[in-house]
Design brief:
183 residues, mainly alpha, Ribosomal Protein L9, domain 1, 6 helices, 5 strands, DNA replication complex GINS protein PSF2
Length: 183
């Protein structure tokens, strides 16, 4: 959802991607490496062809140096995304169950490791369709704002970030209206 500059008081999509890069992901290393300690924790040892779990930022770094293959998360496949898209269309009042940072993680993986993913073009298309369906549902839900309550169950971090500035301003206006009608 593109917002005008004066409404962009939220975290940027690039910052959300950086936060999402802390998520653990499986890789198949192409090099051997002993256990390595970082501020965020110790990872390894890496022993090809055994799988290992690393933060996404480290997997991306190794992938760019051609030192690993990234294994797609369980939810990042055509069948699963088609199922979630069908749920989005079938249930207009609820969001399908997707990981909180699915948008950011899928973007990073499609940008860096599309050769490790099955049907990357179809994945991009499904993710775009999912995003559009969820945005339409979010916009429809914002039409029914109430100054006392809002449920955001099932929204991802990127979706919450996109509606946050509009939501904050809307809630301020609704609260002022509610207070003025009480007096």
């Amino acid at each position: 959802m593109a917002l005008p500059v004066h409404l962009r008081d939220s975290v940027t999509p690039q910052e959300l991607e950086m936060i999402a890069c802390q998520q653990l992901i499986e890789i198949v290393p192409l090099i051997a490496m002993e256990k390595t300690a970082f501020i965020s924790g110790a990872y390894g040892p890496l022993r090809p062809p055994s799988k290992a779990k690393l933060p996404l930022w480290m997997a991306v770094n190794l992938k760019l140096k051609k030192k690993c293959h990234i294994i797609a998360p369980d939810w990042l496949n055509v069948e699963h995304l088609q199922d979630r898209l069908a749920q989005e269309v079938a249930k207009p009042d609820a969001f399908s169950d997707l990981p909180f940072r699915f948008s950011e993680i899928s973007k990073v993986l499609l940008d860096v490791a599309s050769d490790d993913l099955e049907n990357p073009d179809q994945l991009r298309s499904l993710l775009k369709d999912l995003r559009e369906a969820r945005q339409a549902k979010s916009r429809e839900g914002l039409k029914h704002l109430d100054h006392s309550e809002l449920g955001l169950t099932g929204l991802s971090s990127m979706e919450i970030n996109e509606i946050r500035p509009f939501f904050v301003q809307s809630m301020n206006v609704l609260t002022k209206i509610a207070r003025s009608s009480e007096t």
